[in-house]
Fold this protein.
Amino acid sequence: MTENNTAPSGPPSPRSPGYWDAAAPEFDEEPDHGLRDPAVRAAWSARLADWLPGEPSDVLDLGCGTGSLTLLAAGQGHRVTGVDSSPRMAERARAKLAGTGAEVLTGDAAAPPVGTRRFDVVLARHVLWLMPDPAAVLRHWAGLLRPGGRLVLVEGVWGTVSPAGLPAADLEAAVAPLADRTRFERLSGEPALWGGPVDDERYALVARPAPARRHTEVVDVHLVLRRGAEVLLARRAGTGYGDGLLGVPSGHAEDGEDVRQAVIREAREETGLDLAPEDLRAALVMQHRGPGGAPRIGWFFEAAYGAGGEPVNREPEKCSEFRWCPLDRLPDDMVAYCRAGLEAYRAGDRFVLHWQMAEDRVAHDPAAPDRTVCLPATEGRAG
């Protein structure tokens, strides 16, 4: 995609392949494209100085066209990367920017080919109106920003008979879920920007995306109750997750509990066992994610049969049966991550990832890919 200030009328469409290549030779003849008029260039330079950070920053100019705004940003001391889908536009931009240190890439502005690089500013002039899903594009662009970065978006609606473009209200609605702060500026009444008066809608939106929320995870606890070579399994019922499948007695830590307190409480509520802290051994720590779900941290604690009494099903509305099963011959009708955790525990692993994909089943599937990743632990004391 490339910058454009007037919605073209008639075929070919600006969304069609090759349109911008064909437009490249005459593109800079428009006053706000080539910025050849000193007054127009000065007006855009002043605007950029206001929109961009005051200190030298990394700026990504998407749909850079022939690079006129890219050149202004580079001239203000910024480290600029331009991207345009048109090879001929990109070629003209490289020529215009020669010697400035700016980089011009050929690629899709919606998904710019910048890899893992991050920027202080994503700048786009007259680009979003060409996108089938501007909200999705904005989410991707916001992900290209460093913390504290900003989106600088210049858009409009051109023409009165058959108007084309992106109304300001639509862009503000698309930005709102992403933005912590926004600044809206109407540009239609500033003829110096356009080389003369205009009577359609032109505007700029400067948005600072909200800081990323700190990642949090539910902490769940699991009781591995051993009776010699056997382990106690409970069949889930009426929980809404994995019902009909086997797993070990489990629950999640509540506010104010540590994981040991949590497994003692859950054991009492589910099995009637009155375990003491000294009855428990940390068996396994697993970060796991069910199909389409959120990540969780699971702590598996081992206890020996006889500790705390005889297990009794205290929650029949959530558990249809208890069953003792050999640890080395676990049944297939188990919750997948629990089965994986017990297999890793039996093998002597202590730190495990089990990251299921959306297409996976909640139940263990012997034919499915093994999602278990065992993490090596340090040995002995750190010297």
About this structure: The chain has ten helices and 17 strands. Residues 1-11 have pLDDT under 50 and may be disordered.
